[in-house]
Design goal:
The chain has about 325 residues and is of the alpha/beta class. It folds into two domains: about 220 residues, Rossmann fold, CATH 3.40.50; about 60 residues, Orthogonal Bundle (Arc Repressor Mutant, subunit A), CATH 1.10.10.10. Helix content is about 30%, strand content about 20%. Strand 4 and strand 5 form a beta hairpin.
Length: about 325
């Protein structure tokens, strides 16, 4: 895929839970399998794709059906699915998988020769390995590279961010051994529904980085989401010094209230995009005033605090009110 996934390379796609990374990985895979340009402008070279859905197949089936309906695709003969983890670190698994690919026929005299393998996700495929351990991560990446080399294909690894949401989770050897890397970041409305996904290319080994791509859910979907290209969002309103102002406290509270399962400190801070000192100051005040509470490691909006939309939106860092 032009500018995104190159032949015989390893690519990474990472983001927080709910940031759209698996939707994008599926979109890329199915576009390549059909020879369709992604978003109508990123050209692809048609090739069979092996998609390892390590987190299970029930949700992915809905996503695939919705994608096919949206694009009017009747079948996906070049897509091949493994709906269980492939624990590549275990001895013999790589060889067994390669033998399976060699045995699979797609025609009377034609064997499966994939152009892309997708591992979705790393955390479900590393088995009992430790993502933060250089040896375990190195072994995982090495085994993925071996499969890709043996079949002369590209590989895409889908992964999560760290607790702060700033970088991919685990040991730095992952980034060091990957050719291209993309990050997804999601924006939600007050009801917690996804309204925008920003795809950022933050590593390109041998080419110019792709400019940010902005995606939004297509209208008229029924079972699942399909992401289509949209315009870049309006820049955040600036203060008098020309620097974008941080998220207001009331919007922090709305953000937390949109999450039925709450947020950990790191998840909430990353979603709010606020510096540590300012974030801690606001959280302490919200706790003191009874607007939020904490259970275990997660924060929640207090049940009585339901009319978040009615709160005062005045600036508060130097005085009273919400920001």
């Amino acid at each position: 895929m032009e500018g995104i996934i190159y032949e015989n390379t390893i690519s990474g796609l990472y983001g927080q839970p709910g940031s759209g990374k698996s939707f994008i990985a599926l979109d890329w895979a199915m576009c390549i399998s059909e020879g369709m340009p992604w978003l109508g402008r990123f050209k692809t070279k048609q090739a069979p794709v092996v998609y390892i859905a390590a987190e299970g197949g029930q949700g992915i089936q809905k996503r695939v059906r919705e994608w096919m309906r949206h694009y009017g695709v009747q079948s996906l003969p070049a897509m091949h699915w493994l709906l269980n983890p492939l624990y590549v670190r275990e001895d013999g698994i790589v060889e067994e998988f390669l033998n399976t690919l060699e045995r699979d026929h797609i025609g009377p005299e034609e064997y499966l020769n994939p152009g892309l393998m997708v591992v979705d996700t790393l955390s479900q495929s590393i088995g009992d390995g430790d993502e933060n351990n250089s040896k375990d991560m190195g072994l995982f990446i090495g085994r993925v590279q071996k499969i890709a080399r043996e079949k002369e294909m590209a590989a895409l690894i889908v992964h999560h961010t760290n607790a702060e949401g700033k970088r991919e989770r685990g040991h730095s050897s992952l980034r060091g051994n990957i050719d291209t890397m993309f990050k997804t970041e999601a924006s939600e409305n007050g009801d917690g529904r996804l309204i925008l996904v920003t795809l950022t290319n933050n590593k390109q080994k041998d080419d110019a980085k792709v400019k940010p791509v902005y995606l939004a859910p297509a209208e008229g979907t029924t079972e699942s989401l399909v992401l289509i290209e949209t315009e870049a969002p309006e820049p955040r309103k600036k203060r008098g010094d020309g620097i974008p102002g941080p998220m207001r406290t009331v919007d922090m509270l709305r953000l937390l209230g949109s999450q039925d399962d709450g947020y950990t400190w790191g998840e909430w801070k990353a979603a709010a995009g606020i510096d540590k000192d300012r974030f801690n100051k606001r959280v302490r005040r919200l706790m003191k005033e009874g607007d939020i509470f904490k259970e275990g490691q997660r924060y929640y909006v207090t049940p009585a605090n339901t009319d978040i939309a009615g709160m005062d939106d005045e600036d508060e860092d130097e005085g009273t009110g919400w920001r």
